[in-house]
Please model this.
Amino acid sequence: MRTGDTAQLIDMTGLEALFGALHERDYTIVGPTVRDGTVTMAELETAAELPWGWAADTGPGHYRLRRRDDDAGFAHCAGPQSVKTFLHPPRARLWSADRTPDGVTTTGPEPPTKRYALVGVHPCDVAALAVLDRVLAHGEHPDPVYTARRDGTLVVTAECTEPGETCFCASMGTGPAATGGYDLALTELLDGGHRFLVRAGSPAGADLLERLPARPASPVDVAAADTAVQQAAATMPRRMPDGPLPELIAANRESPHWADVASRCLTCGNCTMVCPTCFCVSTTDVTDLTGEHAERWRQWDSCFSVDFSYVHGGPVRASGASRYRQWISHKLGTWHEQFGMSGCVGCGRCIAWCPAGIDITREAAALAGEPS
Amino acid sequence: MTAVVTATASGVIPRPYRVIHRHEDTADTVTLELDRAGEGLPEFGPGQFAMLTAYGIGEVPISLSGSRGTRLIHTIRAVGAVTRALCAAAPGEVIGVRGPFGTQWDVGAAAGHDVLVVAGGIGLAPLRPVVERLLADRLAYGRVAILVGARQPRELLYPGDLRRWATHVRVEVIVDRPAPGWRGRSGLVTELIPLAGVDAGRAVAYLCGPEVMMRATARALLDRGVAADRVWLSLERAMRCGAGWCGHCQLGPLLLCRDGPVVGYPVAEPLLNVREL
Model:
């Protein structure tokens, strides 16, 4: 709900003040900006770098920027990159080791040099952070690279008021409203003056909000924000099929539908790279020429690569059909059993960035026997 | 949000262990006895595995095949670059060890039962700590049989242990391809099951070997009346972390580094029956 004492209103000056306050607190601000023909996540100096007046048209295998006829800064749907890139870096050194007379001396991963404030993150990606937290931070053996970056990260979410063609967060229960996991939540309002409803979701957020030139939001502003977000949910074009997906997936392990997907899937792995929750990694050990120094590097991996399942003798999942099955089964089904939640947040990136335009919602619907 | 606590890096950093003894078991298999060359690791249970690092080459998951005080014993078959380097490690050399990871053979739960240990090839390695535990408390268990299969006589592991075990419990050995001079049985390990002499109705079974061997063995045991939930398998998939966050070791809903490698047959069976899962 957007009601209550904490609902405040800021304008563009207030947003600039937010950037200033975050810089003052030594945060490195990461937010959406226009780059390489996309809205991508990057380090930002000022609020002016946000994608004001831009939207993105998406569809299966399709993403194009579009000029808006207003100045909205957060009315774009998910771009090719999520905040995963910053907290679970594509490449990281796990350790470096030097041979000594007594054995080996090993140094762990370098501590992060930056503390991030993630600004303008849509609720689907905030939900993705909760998924990464569960997988990488809350297991028996937490990942030191992720937790060192995640700890102390500040999240300013921007509620989604204009979903894209490929979005289905409403059916995943992860958006378009911000329901948790943030320090501050913004709702962008355009009619009657460009302004932002702001709510604090944590003491750190409340502290920040106090420093901003804000005024209490009127019931009219709150209602406008409610309407904008409800509208986004109502107009969202895609949805996951109803019913329990883990059971659906488990019941379809031998479905002939996997061969049908495989006839279209290029097993390129794009879906896993753009996915905000795909966490799989591989490791590579390297050494210098003397052999006295060794390092282990970790990099993103994809279950679509043949090597991913390699055990001595060959890969377990040699066929494209088995690899697509693994990906979607994990995302929608077995993730629940492994981590107690879905691995899909409904951001739609995998649909837009699939060169073959494979649509996870349509494949799930086909498995569920829904007419396409 | 400061929602998570920063983890220490100790879990990803291999601890240096020095090779104390190196024993060539077969043409491609070596057993290393390792002692800590710094801070040691927590105690390993039977069935658990370590991630072993050949510095500068890579890391592989290897089950514990024995222990001596704080020393770890691992039996390694050279099948790739990392395992070749580990197998070549001479006494005095330092390798990296992380662990212990994964589930254990719950040998204590077999107390009062007959016990069947069925191994194929290097599958005997993770089962050796089970046998030692059974023998250490022999009276706690009923009849015990150890059934061992190997491709060829020269690939049989731990012949000294097999002879020692045979003085306490029933040990049967079979090979696929007998060589000249082999006077033992030839065939598949499943053919040894009728010789085990255990009461199927009260037997607990521990299986480790190639997947096809474990599936055939488990089915044969169930056919003879062993309860499915008393059959335990040790499964293998690719692993990069041991910690549940590299994603490689998935078998359906299982992360085998966390939910395995030791898995009950009722859980494993429907998963192993699906090709390329």
Chain A touches chain B through 72 residues (CB under 8 Å). Chain A has a mean pLDDT of 95.
